[in-house]
Amino acid sequence: MNQALLGQRVLLCVGGGIAAYKSLDLVRRLRDAGAQVQVAMTAGAQQFVTPLTFQALSGHPTRTTLWDSHAEASMGHIELARWADRVLIAPATADLLAHLAQGLADDLVTTLCLATTAPITVCPAMNHVMWAHPATQANVQLLRQRGVQVIGPEDGPLAEGESGPGRLTEPTAIVAALSRTAEQAAPALAQTLAGERVVVSAGPTYEDLDPVRYLGNRSSGKMGFAIAAAAARRGAEVLLVAGPVSLPTPVGVSRIDVRSAVQMRQAVLGALPADIYIGAAAVADYTPRTQMANKIKKSSERLDLDLVRTPDILAEVAASEQALKLVVGFAAETENVAEYARGKLLAKRLDMIVANRVGIPDGGFESDRNAMTAYWKDGERDFSSAPKTELADRLVDLIVERLNA
């Protein structure tokens, strides 16, 4: 499978045409290719498809206006424009193409296109007469001269019952074209982990109290999944052991889904021997001594839970007789981050530990961004706040560096 879009951040701008419904499938196809997708819509687009539908498919809130006081408290449109690795406009109506050609910025979508430095791709869709009009053709030619990629339109039946050039290119073909462009633009990624077997654990564990309730944590699995993807891109054979999360499996990665700490231990130890283990999962420290067969009823003002320690997977892997070349742990802390991380590094006899502070805005669990510090016996490296996909690439590069130290 082509991995050119793996980890790419695509800002999909949806114009106000009937073909907007196809952009729903486009979101899914982009995510299947490993891209992260955020959606911005024009007012016209919202007449055809609801923002909520795009939110459900992309996993991110859909942006619709410059006048969102919450999002714009931190200049959200500028942040979104900077977030994107590529801006994709589909469908691009005749009106939207004209606005882009003239450099107008009278709504969110056109403002984003002026505020970004990312490459822009437009996928025109309109009536065939509108497409053939000299004004539209002049606008498209001007955009091409500025480096804008144009995909389509295709020749075929149109919504109004006529036929001709103006049909939106199918989502699968759009993704294929974007993949080819990304592959040509990106330098070949060095296969620095070729021949290495890497096991990554990610996400939370859920410890069931009864058939209804469980003990868990707020880990989203995003960091671990990004690390697995980054290792696969560098040629590693990657097995991802995932707790209960709703994330697509990265391209080129094998996956085992688990729920509890005991199940995660069984899957991780069963995956050995391996060359590298990266324990990015937030494994529960305690689990109920007994799981109730029936729902615990609300019968008193107080409920006491009898909890016991869960297995220490990270320490077991580090002490395994099936020696690994590198064992990397994670530490999510709310205070004294460096002290606790170095203590865990020594106590568990790890080769490296990656620590970050949680419980803060724009970082830690659930966020798409993070900041962290990696520690090893005689060194450390800070990673400033960045998208988790970017941090994963930088961390895997450090792991390769330490592997060869």
Task: Explain how this protein is built.
With 405 residues, the protein is of the alpha/beta class. The protein has two domains: 9-185, Flavin prenyltransferase-like (Rossmann fold); 197-294 and 303-403, Rossmann fold (3-Layer(aba) Sandwich). It has 13 helices and 19 strands. Strands 12-11-8-13-16-17-18-19 form an eight-stranded mixed sheet, sandwiched between helices. A five-stranded parallel sheet has the order 2-1-3-4-5, sandwiched between helices. A hairpin with a 5-residue loop joins strand 6 (154-157) and strand 7. It is elongated and about 75 Å long. The two termini are 32 Å apart. The model has no long low-confidence stretch (mean pLDDT 89). Residues 198-405 are annotated as: Phosphopantothenate--cysteine ligase. Its EC number is 4.1.1.36, 6.3.2.5. InterPro entries: CoaB-like_sf, CoaBC, DNA/pantothenate-metab_flavo_C, Flavin_trans-like, Flavoprotein. Residues 9-177 form the Flavoprotein domain.
Structural class: alpha/beta
Q: Which whole number gives the mean pLDDT? A: 89
Sheet with the most strands, sense and barrel status: 8 strands, mixed
Number of domains: 2
Counting H and I runs of at least 4 residues, what is the number of helices?
Answer: 13
| Helix content bin | 25-40%
Strand content: 15-25%
CATH class of the largest domain: Alpha Beta
Identify the overall geometry. elongated
Number of strands: 19
Q: What is the CA-atom radius of gyration, in angstroms?
A: 24 Å
Sequence of strands across the biggest β-sheet: 12-11-8-13-16-17-18-19
CATH architectural grouping of the largest domain: 3-Layer(aba) Sandwich
Span between N and C termini?
Answer: 32 Å
CATH topology of the largest domain, by name, is Rossmann fold
Unreliable sequence segments: none
The CATH superfamily label of the largest domain reads: CoaB-like
